[in-house]
Amino acid sequence: MAVAGERAGRPAGPGPGCREEPFSPSVLGTREHWDAAYERELQTFEDIGDAGEIWFGEESMVRIIRWLEKQQIPLDSSVLDIGTGNGVLLVELAKSGYTDLTGIDYSPSAIQLSEKVREKEGMSNIKFKVEDFLAPSAELSGFEICIDKGTFDAISLNPDNAVGKRKQYVRSLCSVLKPEGFFLITSCNWTKEELLNEFREGFEILEELPTPKFCFGGRIGNSVTALVFQRKKLRPSILDKLD
Ligand SMILES: C[S@@+](CC[C@H](N)C(=O)[O-])C[C@H]1O[C@@H](n2cnc3c(N)ncnc32)[C@H](O)[C@@H]1O
């Protein structure tokens, strides 16, 4: 499997922020692909108890947990994992003491798998729910932290109107994350500059988290980008319009 670690389907093109369609569409952007993938992983879990792929490796979870700990984010903060897959990140957060954890995924087999992993690990307080993040239910709101590991990447590869889906992703994020809440994204398809452009409306960058570097042709780059954004405060003029 690979979205992780590769910049999937990226054709040559002009510089960051200039492309409307930066990637070739791929099955990795479809629900059918993820349903089939997690159906297989569910079977493997039942056969041998293996939770399956950890996207971007264990270090990607350590990086997120370290940041939360460094910022002394209270352990009862509400955390949403967008496109949780097998839910292992939330299990690790629960092991680190976080108590208000929710994972959503549009693939019912991913949620089935994450519930089984939760059961095996004895972390019954983690909430999992089948939800399409591009059409979030009203109850999905007020989160203090949102985390995305590979889901914005997958959505960006959707063969059907990926540009519109990326815009909807940003709208959904604004509706589920509290003003001044934190958004931690790990991506292998987008560079830092491109992500800054994608999330420029309503978010400001707080920090780039260190990821492994590679050297190619004398230039140094990262194959994975990990950023922390903060949702901007609602301006009084916007609040007036919402009243
Ligand atoms: C690359 S996998 C990453 C899984 C998990 N975050 C991890 O790090 O292991 C992308 C995940 O996003 C989910 N996904 C893609 N589009 C989604 C959407 N619109 N709403 C909810 N989940 C989505 C897929 O089902 C899949 O579980």
UniProtKB/TrEMBL annotation:
Q: What class of enzyme is it?
A: transferase
The EC number of this protein is: 2.1.1.-
Example GO molecular function: protein-lysine N-methyltransferase activity
Q: Where in the cell is it found?
A: Cytoplasm; Nucleus
Catalytic activity field: L-lysyl-[protein] + 3 S-adenosyl-L-methionine = N(6),N(6),N(6)-trimethyl-L-lysyl-[protein] + 3 S-adenosyl-L-homocysteine + 3 H(+)
Q: Which residues form the Methyltransferase domain?
A: 77-208
Q: Sorted alphabetically, which keywords does the UniProt record give?
A: Cytoplasm, Methyltransferase, Nucleus, S-adenosyl-L-methionine, Transferase
Name the GO terms of the biological process aspect: methylation
Q: Where is this region: Disordered?
A: 1-26
Q: Does the keyword Coiled coil apply?
A: no
Classification via InterPro entries: Efm4/METTL10, Methyltranfer_dom, SAM-dependent_MTases_sf
Which cellular component terms (GO) are annotated to the entry? cytoplasm; nucleus
Q: What is its main location?
A: cytoplasm
Function (record text)? Protein-lysine methyltransferase that selectively catalyzes the trimethylation of EEF1A at 'Lys-318'.
Checking HAMAP family in the record gives: Methyltr_EFM4
Similarity comment: family membership: Belongs to the class I-like SAM-binding methyltransferase superfamily. EFM4 family.
Protein's name in the database:
EEF1A lysine methyltransferase 2
Taxonomic lineage is: Eukaryota, Metazoa, Chordata, Craniata, Vertebrata
